[in-house]
Amino acid sequence: MADVLRQYNGDSLYLAAFAASLVLVWFVDTKRSQGKTGKKALTAVLFAIIFIFNEFAYRIVGKLTDATTYYRFFWMLPVLFVTAYVMTQAFTGRNRGQAVIAAAVLAVCLVTGANFFFLNRANFNRPKNIYGLDPEVLTIADEIMADWDSSSEQPVAAFNMYLEYQVRTYEPRILWGISRNAYLYQAKNGYDYKKYVRQQHIIAAVNEGIQNDSRALRRSILKSGVDYLVIQTEFDMDSYLAQISVLPVAQSENYTIYRVRE
């Protein structure tokens, strides 16, 4: 259970705000309703622990869908609703002390957590990197959009799994060249080329710099409609990719961006 909480708490204090909200619910609403609301809050927490905040629930959700992406929505529901309820009650009520406590809790969460809206550790302005992504991701996405010369279509790029979701979070105009299912299939079965055959060659190139059949890679790129490959520079793919008219156009600290030529 502790591992699940640590994994999804991230660099924020959502769960701390949730815990503080439950304490306020218990002490404040107990006085108003002879403990009924406090008991309901405690019951809700117990049900959340049993059905959400544990490894067993995580595995069940993982069987049904992609746990690493969608599991967080399950625990966000009680966390966000309870926190929102308590904060609203505190700020709209007549008790000044409650409002001060709520404001203090909110301030701690904003200052300690990373990249919350207009406030983060370094700025009191809306940061460019609002999601706290790897700075290199911003460079890669900006270079692709700067090189892209088409106003009617969106560029399609293939990255390794580490970059894939981050680039799309920062720059949604860049489309994925490799499906999530293809990545998951490869991770489980290796490069057997029996399924997602078009994308397996691209995954091998961007993930590990594998230099096998260059013509097969070229066919996969064209059939998948990929315009850019982003590959770690240390893989030294320039000469290999040049044989199939995939040429470097920009470079970040650790990656080279290649444009697929007609």
Task: Give a quick set of tags describing it.
single chain; 262 residues; alpha/beta; five-stranded mixed β-sheet; 12 helices; 5 strands; 8% strand; elongated
What structural class do helix, strand and pairing data support? alpha/beta
The H/E string reads: HHHHHHHEHEHHHEHEE
The span between the termini is: 52 Å
Spatial shape: elongated
User: What is the count of DSSP helices, taking H or I runs of 4+ residues?
Assistant: 12
Summarize model confidence as the mean pLDDT.
77
Strand adjacency order, main sheet: 2-1-3-5-4
Q: Strand tally, please?
A: 5
Report the oligomer.
single chain
Helix content: 55-70%
Q: Would you identify the regions where 5 or more consecutive residues have pLDDT less than 50?
A: 114-121
Overview of the structural elements:
The chain has helices spanning 2-9, 14-33, 36-51, 55-64, 67-92, 96-112, 135-147, 161-170, 180-189, 197-208, 214-224, 238-242, and strands at residues 156-158, 175-176, 228-232, 246-251, 255-260. It has a five-stranded mixed β-sheet with strand order 2-1-3-5-4, sandwiched between helices. With 262 residues, the chain is of the alpha/beta class. The longest helix is centred in the N-terminal third of the chain and has 26 residues, at 67-92. Helix content is 60%, strand content 8%. It contains twelve helices and five strands. Helix 2 packs antiparallel against helix 3 (36-51), helix 4 (55-64) crosses helix 5 and helix 10 crosses helix 11 (214-224). Helix 8 links the parallel strand 1 and strand 2 (175-176). The protein is elongated.
